Amino acid sequence: MFRATSAESLQQCTQPLHLALGVFDGVHVGHRAVIKSAQDYARQNGGSCGVVTFDPHPIRLLAPERAPRQLLASLDHKARLLQRMNMDFLLALSFDAALASLSAEEFIAMLQRAGTIASIAVGEDWRFGKGRQGDVALLRRIGEIHGFVINAVPPVMHEGERISSTRIRQSIRDGALANAAAMLGRPYGIEGEVVKGQQLGRTIGFPTANLALGEEQLPPDGVWAVRVVQDTVTWNGVANLGYRPTVDGTKQVFEVHLFDAAPELYGKTLEVEFVRYLREERKFSDLDALRAQISADAAAARAFFAP
């Protein structure tokens, strides 16, 4: 998948372009419906299909007081999710004051500098341009003038309510990971770079990969059965998210122990899916008690993953 940061840099795509427009935080089931609409139309009519998104999230500039503190996926994580959907390209536009000042017509004119647009897919209530003046009706009028098709996709519902990134973030905060997974269309996970920790796990027989925590939404602290992905390799494991009250207690950390593997992962980016909540984090009397509990946690996680 080709990644671009400006419309002009997409000019190397010589085929007609089919665009899915949106923020797509988390690439949830509703987002996937918009993206699939673009893919289906591209498949039927020929051309290159990609996503146009924004970084940072527009609300952080337009209404910072309402902006979520944490997202469902960083830009790099979003790119990997889209690559798994076999997108041809990702255009991630820098959302700054200049972009925010463009009228709806100017925004589409900017996109047209990428090449010949054949179709645009959006959610049916998507708004764009300065003051959110643009809507699907305006898109259709512009499309009629310039010869491209607009595919407006209705919202996808879950339990009688529209799926949204806001709902999913709240489910994750509440620990309702099964509900979040139903709306995401996948188990929820975060990405992080493996960094050096205190290496205490090695001394008690459970080496861990310590992930740097970024801007992605975290579930409740505690011990989790997890699935870990690095490039094309997948492991099962057990993870602790929290403050390690037995040995430290001052800083939130995320430590992952992989089953039946001890690869060198420093500097690598891991995607860790939260598959099952095992228990709350708690303080133990000494390292021997901690070691015994980690052994029990690992056994519980292995039992969960067992066929």
Describe the structure concisely for a colleague:
By secondary structure, the chain is an alpha/beta fold. The protein has helices at 29-45, 59-62, 75-84, 97-100, 104-112, 136-146, 165-173, 177-184, 200-203, 287-305, and strands at residues 2-4, 17-21, 48-55, 89-94, 117-123, 149-153, 157-158, 161-162, 189-195, 209-211, 222-230, 233-242, 253-258, 269-279. Strands 1-4-3-2-5-6 form a 6-stranded parallel β-sheet, with helices on both faces. The protein has a 6-stranded antiparallel β-barrel with strand order 9-10-13-12-11-14.
Task: From the structure above, extract its key features.
single chain; 307 residues; alpha/beta; Rossmann fold; Elongation Factor Tu (Ef-tu), domain 3; 2 domains; six-stranded parallel β-sheet; six-stranded antiparallel barrel; 10 helices; 14 strands; 31% helix; elongated
Please write out the topology.
Layout: E1 2-4, E2 17-21, H1 29-45, E3 48-55, H2 59-62, H3 75-84, E4 89-94, H4 97-100, H5 104-112, E5 117-123, H6 136-146, E6 149-153, E7 157-158, E8 161-162, H7 165-173, H8 177-184, E9 189-195, H9 200-203, E10 209-211, E11 222-230, E12 233-242, E13 253-258, E14 269-279, H10 287-305
Parallel strand pairs: 1-4, 2-3, 2-5, 3-4, 5-6
Antiparallel strand pairs: 7-8, 9-10, 9-14, 10-13, 11-12, 11-14, 12-13
Helix pairs in contact: 7-8
